């Protein structure tokens, strides 16, 4: 099973777990399994069409899935998936 | 309440002054107890915003990933983000609010060319509005 690393702002939706084991052979299946087990995560990660929200970055290992095959990126049993919120702001 | 020791305050101020008139940014790492957060380390990161860095900041996903991994290796928690408002108050803008993450502490430093005017911290409430988080400055770290 692959491992998903949950960023601190979203851990309140995973019972404070920082790492969650998920099943699935692709990122899409893994995120689907994750949101099945932790439904409150869904609105933070996915839009109404079930696609990853634009301000959510997903890495497999050290690589952004946008540089791989996006949500169809294939996973190995030892893959580590990181969910990374966009961090930005500014004065005015 | 957010606990900052004096060396942390000095590091935050130094970064805000060094990057003026651009906005600085970075991460806050520490320990969370039931009624306070103690910031033990900061990670200074590059403002990756393409465009007007004098009023915008952005942190890359790779920098976020590194910070989260560093925090885990050190037994700390990634508790928030800091940034500066050059020549503006240390109050979150509407842009700050819209892009803010829940849970995180957002330290904002108001800075001008010669000194840091004020340092304040903010957190989103359940209605996604910022509320001020009181800062208490310590002489030494809680864990040292």
Beta-strand proportion of chain B? 35-45%
Strand order of the largest sheet of chain A: 2-1-5-3-4
- Estimate the mean pLDDT confidence of chain A: 94
What's the structural domain tally of chain A? 1
Q: Would you state the CATH class of chain B? A: Alpha Beta
**For this structure, what is the CATH homologous superfamily of chain B?**
Cytidine Deaminase, domain 2
The helix tally of chain A amounts to: 2
Number of strands of chain B: 9
Instruction: Report how far the terminal alpha carbons of chain A are from each other.
Output: 45 Å
Query: Which structural class should the secondary elements of chain B be placed in?
Result: alpha/beta
- For this structure, the CATH topology of chain A is Ubiquitin-like (UB roll)
Strand-and-helix sequence of chain B, N→C?
A: EHEEEHEHEEEE
Compute the number of strand runs of chain A.
Answer: 6
- Give me the side-by-side strand order of the main sheet of chain B: 8-7-6-5-2-3-1-9
CATH architecture of chain B: 3-Layer(aba) Sandwich
Strand content of chain A: 25-35%
CATH topology title of chain B = Cytidine Deaminase, domain 2
What is the CATH class designation of chain A?
Alpha Beta
Q: Briefly, what is this?
A:
The complex is a heterodimer of chains A (92) and B (144). Chain A is α+β, with helices and mostly antiparallel strands.
């Amino acid at each position: 099973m692959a491992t998903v690393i949950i960023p601190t702002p979203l851990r309140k939706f995973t019972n404070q777990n920082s790492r969650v084991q998920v099943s699935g052979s692709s990122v899409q299946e893994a995120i689907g399994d994750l949101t099945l087990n932790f439904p409150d995560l869904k609105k933070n990660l996915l839009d109404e069409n079930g696609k990853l929200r634009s301000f959510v970055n997903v890495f497999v290992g050290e690589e952004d899935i946008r540089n791989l095959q996006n949500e169809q990126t294939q996973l190995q049993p030892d893959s580590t998936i990181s969910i990374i919120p966009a961090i930005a702001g500014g004065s005015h | 309440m957010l606990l900052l020791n004096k060396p942390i305050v000095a590091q935050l101020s130094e970064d805000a002054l060094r990057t003026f008139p651009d906005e600085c940014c970075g991460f806050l790492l520490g320990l969370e107890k039931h009624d306070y957060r103690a910031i033990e380390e900061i990670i200074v990161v590059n403002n990756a915003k393409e465009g007007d860095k004098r009023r915008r900041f952005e942190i890359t996903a790779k920098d976020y990933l590194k910070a989260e991994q560093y925090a885990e290796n050190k037994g700390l928690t990634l508790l928030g983000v800091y940034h500066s408002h050059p020549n503006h108050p240390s109050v979150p803008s509407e842009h700050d609010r819209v892009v803010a993450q829940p849970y995180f502490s957002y330290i904002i430093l108001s800075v001008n060319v010669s000194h840091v005017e004020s340092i304040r911290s903010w957190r989103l409430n359940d209605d996604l509005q910022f509320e001020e988080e009181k800062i208490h400055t310590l002489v030494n770290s809680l864990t040292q």
